[in-house]
Amino acid sequence: LHCVLVMNPNSQDFRKRLRELPAITSRCTIDWFQEWPEEALQAVAERLIPEALAEAEAGDNPGASALGEQPTAEKEENKEQDVEPEGEGFPHMDFATRRTIMKALPAVHMAAGSVIKAAGRNGSCLPHRLRLQAAPPSSFLNLVRLFCGIFKRGTQEATAKRLVLEIGVRRLQEAKGHIESMQLTQKNKWPMMETMKAEVKVATAKLEAEKARADSTQRHVQKEEDAARKKEADCMEKEQE
């Protein structure tokens, strides 16, 4: 029976296990894993990042995750030629940008490891705990997860802002349609309004003429009433005499 235990030598738990279980060093064969080569880091990035992008953008493109898988040989050919495979397009990030990111993350991890090694050789990377620092593969996985999380949050924020803008544009288009409809209605009713305006003008002139005649008649009647009252008053004076 062979048991294989995989541990991270850069963690505090590993040191604790060595102190509590000395058989790990005295009864076990230790096989130190070499650092991941750049090709392995690249393969991990090419596997995890597209999945994270597809998950982050599934809300905008629900059918993206259900698209058919492309044959492996064709994928390798497209990867060598930097050609975007069919069925793997993401609306928020073009293929060249994704390829650049998948190449940049391994380069950043390896550069960090080189800096840590160089600092360790000259003693500047020994903190208060007096132990060397390292950039194990798990830190690369954390880097990929960090990028995927940031991208997912950014995609969600961009999607929310885009929805707000789309609603605003839709409202503006609706308002524009209403304004155009009102302008068309006003244009169609304008001749009728001009006709009604002319009719109102004629009717107003006629009413003013009739009012003038009525005022003249009223003044004539008023004069006759005044004359009649005067005659009546004269007659009453004569009767009293």
From TrEMBL:
GO terms for cellular component: dynein complex. It comes from the Eukaryota. Signal peptide: none annotated. Residues 72-82 have a biased composition (Basic and acidic residues). GO terms for biological process: microtubule-based movement. Residues 1-57 form the Dynein heavy chain AAA module D4 domain. Gene3D superfamilies: 1.10.287.2610, P-loop containing nucleotide triphosphate hydrolases (3.40.50.300). Residues 56-92, 209-241 are annotated as: Disordered. GO terms for molecular function: dynein intermediate chain binding; dynein light intermediate chain binding. InterPro entries: DHC, Dynein_heavy_chain_D4_dom, P-loop_NTPase. This is Dynein heavy chain AAA module D4 domain-containing protein.
